[in-house]
Amino acid sequence: MTSTRPTSSSATRRRRGLGDTSTRLAALTLAGVLMVVVAACSGGDDDDAAATTTEPAVETTEATVETTDAPTTEPATTESTTTTTMEPTTTTEAVIARMPLTGVPLAFGQTVPDRPALAVKIDNVECAHRTQVGLNLADIVFEEIVEGRLTRFAAIFHSQSADPVGPIRSGRSQDVDMLGGLNRPLLAWSGGNPGVNRAIAESDLIDLSSQRGASGYYRGRNCSAPHNLFNTTDDLWAQAPPEAGRPTALFQYLNPDEVAAGPDTSWAQLMVGIRAVRWDWDPASGTYLRQEGGRPHVLADGEQVSTNNVVVLVNEYRPTPWNAISPEAVSVGTGDAYVFTGGKLQVGTWSRADRTSPISLTTPEGAVIELTPGRTFVEMADVLDHGTVSG
Questions:
Q1: Is 162 helix (H, G, I), strand (E, B) or coil?
Q2: Phi, psi torsion values for 194, nearest 5 degrees
Q3: Distance separating alpha carbons of residues 280 and 153, to the nearest angstrom
Q4: SS in 3 state form for 194-220?
Q5: On the chain, which terminus has fewer CB atoms closer than 10 Å, C or N?
Q6: Which are the contacts of 258, defined by CB distance < 8 A and separation ≥ 6?
């Protein structure tokens, strides 16, 4: 802002200069004497002193102007304005590199395996419990209800291999939606009825069934067919075509320094079809141990089935269009969810916008439910009779 003091015109100065010069000098002298007297009588206040010394300076300047009769212009004074620009502060949380299907942070120098997710359909009837292999090496395991309300597993491999894996059984139409979020995964299975074959063929799942000539399948000796078909994950990955995708995360995971929320819970129990399933929290190993039918669920190598997270998705089941006795889980939409992780329980909701979406888990308030990094077992329970309880 510019401030300019008003100035007198030269005509005005000439009129003021017509008076007696000696008279004006006498007046100035008298004014100076009076000012000295006032200053001598003041109490020494700095503000008052400044006020008394200002006036003679102005008068002296004015007298000089009148004597020289020269035009006087006060210099313009510009008030400076300083503008301060505040840069916005952005806090960016560091992104942790993880295995996509377990959420386990990568070690220094470690990279995500450059291969597709591999879904293997694994038997869970008759003598299968004595011969099952590979379940504890899978990143994610889905348990789904099939005919007779028995169950079958879809074991998803990516970060680890299993040699062998099985026994491998047939697929179901519900696999198309259930596995769609894995981004064009490989599907290892023994084949199916014409309706299932068509559903798989028309989907984006990569068909590696033994019926269609995929290699590496062989029969074991401990059980009779069809409960004795095996393969290895490395042999199956070697057959991946170029169009097979690479998996992205199905769930969200806690950071390494975080702990799960929710009340302490040491066990969970539910029905999956006709299977009575129980999971017991083992703090020493940081895993849940599985029982089925009142007995520990033990694999062929003597290890009990275990996992870091148990996610119960409450689904509606409906008959498939071509086989009324074959149930099909509705895995797109929303429903109730029970999440057991780190010895805690969180009850909330699962949701998926479409078959290629991840599985969103949220609390009733809308907060994301995050899992402990590690392996996850997903129970595809029936809304009609799952009866999930815990304690």
A1: coil
A2: -55, -40
A3: 20
A4: HHHHHHHHCCCCEECCCCCCCCCCEEC
A5: N
A6: 370
The residue behind tokens 């899992």 is 371
Mean pLDDT of the 317-321 span: 93
What percentage of residues in the chain have a pLDDT greater than 90?
71
Q: Which amino acid is at 57?
A: A
Write the pLDDT tens digit of every residue in 251-297.
Answer: 999 998 999 999 999 999 999 999 999 999 999 999 999 999 999 99
- Exposed, middle or buried: residue 378 (CB in 10 Å: 0-12, 13-18, 19+)? buried
φ, ψ for residue 106 (rounded to 5)? -75, 140
Crossing angle for the helix pair 46-68 and 21-41, to the nearest 10 degrees: 170
Q: How far apart are CA 44 and CA 147, in angstroms?
A: 108
Q: What average pLDDT does the segment 356-369 reach?
A: 97
**Among 268, 272, 269, 267, which residue's Cα sits nearest to residue 385?**
272
Q: Give the closest residue to 310 by CA, choosing from 328, 286, 334.
A: 286
Which residues, in sequence order, are bridge partners of residue 268? 279, 390
Mean pLDDT of 139-143: 98
Residue 67 CB neighbours (<10 A): 12
Planar angle of CA 195, 197, 201, nearest 5 degrees: 120
Residue 166's nearest CA partner among 219, 102, 113, 235 is: 219
Residue 86, pLDDT > 60, answer no
- C-alpha 14/C-alpha 27 separation (Å) is 19
What single-letter DSSP state applies at residue 247?
-
Residues of the chain by 3-state class (helix, strand, coil), percent to 5: 20, 30, 50
User: Per the structure block, which two tokens stand in for 134?
Assistant: 């590979």
Give the pTM: 0.77
Nearest to 65 by CA among 106, 113, 28, 16: 16
